[in-house]
Amino acid sequence: MPHIDLNADLGESNAGNPVADDAAMISLISSANVACGFHAGDPHDIFTTLKLAAERGLTVGAHPAYRDRAGFGRRFIDYDPAELADEILYQIGAVDALARAAGTRVSYVKPHGALYNTIVHNEAHAKATLDGIAAFGDLPVMLLPGGLAVDMAEKRGTRVICEAFADRGYNPDGTLVSRRAPGAVLHDADAVAQRVLDLATTGTVTAIDGTQLSLGVESVCVHGDSPGSVEMTAAIVEKLTDAGIQIRSSL
């Protein structure tokens, strides 16, 4: 049966206030990217999310970030690469400890925010991120298709899970439209659901200029912190189910 993975960023509370309805999102998706505390999340809320993910049988990923709670991890930080590698290792280890206590484990890593976007083109930070992951263990890494991090990971023999974004605009070169630019985030649930169905069946997505991009992804990210995100994700699930597409992790 044709299938696609749906992932979402979860555990991103701030001072005990969640930015997403984790329980509702967990009921709809197949993989959870769980915050590690550096951009959002605290141990109790992260553990609560991990227990929910374990109960639902979701695949759990660590979602490490630059150490930037004030900026929600969306600002570039000019780290020393060795320090960045150590902080990546620390974050994965922290979430994995909580995950094991919750009855699951970290099965992959998806960098967050500015780190995720930076390692597409910044060799030093891409290497540091991959070094931090490798220091923990042989975990797959979830990334945008193309870019330095993908090339470097594949040369190391690290499995890459390429993903697309359900509700983000794409530039013609396959990068994401900046959140500061028009068209960065899509809000039409029906259009987003159709886009995910297209990704699952043809592997293509339309860029903001009309260019058809061939992405060939294994996973699609749905953002739980956007207005109406639960309803949008439910529309995606309904569209995929009606088309006979199974929602499950590839791990």
Task: Give a structural overview.
The protein has about 250 residues and is an alpha/beta fold. It has one domain: Alpha-Beta Barrel (TIM Barrel). Helix content is about 40%, strand content about 15%. It contains eight helices and ten strands. It has helices spanning about 20-25, 45-55, 80-100, 115-120, 125-135, 150-155, 190-200, 230-240; strands at about 5-10, 30-35, 60-65, 105-110, 140-145, 160-165, 205, 210-215, 220, 245. Strands 1, 2, 3, 4, 5, 6, 9 and 10 form an eight-stranded parallel beta sheet that branches. Strands 7-8 form a two-stranded antiparallel ribbon. Strand 7 and strand 8 (about 210-215) form a beta hairpin. Helix 2 (about 45-55) crosses helix 3, helix 3 runs parallel beside helix 5 (about 125-135) and helix 5 (about 125-135) packs parallel to helix 6 (about 150-155). The mean pLDDT is about 95.
In short:
Helices cover 39% and strands 17% of the residues. It is globular and about 45 Å long.
Gross morphology is globular
Second CATH tier, the architecture = Alpha-Beta Barrel
Question: In CATH's first tier, which class applies?
Answer: Alpha Beta
Overall structural domain count: 1
Q: What portion of residues belong to β-strands?
A: 15-25%
The number of helical runs is 8
What is the number of beta strands? Answer: 10
Question: What portion of residues is helical?
Answer: 25-40%
User: Could you give the order of the helices and strands?
Assistant: EHEHEHEHHEHEHEEEHE
Q: Mind telling me the CATH superfamily name?
A: Glycoside hydrolase/deacetylase
User: What does the radius of gyration come to?
Assistant: 17 Å
Briefly note the CATH topology name: TIM Barrel
> What ranges have pLDDT less than 50 throughout 5 or more consecutive residues?
none
Kindly name the structural category.
alpha/beta
Biggest β-sheet, characterized?
8 strands, parallel
Mean pLDDT: 96
The end-to-end distance, rounded to whole angstroms, is 16 Å
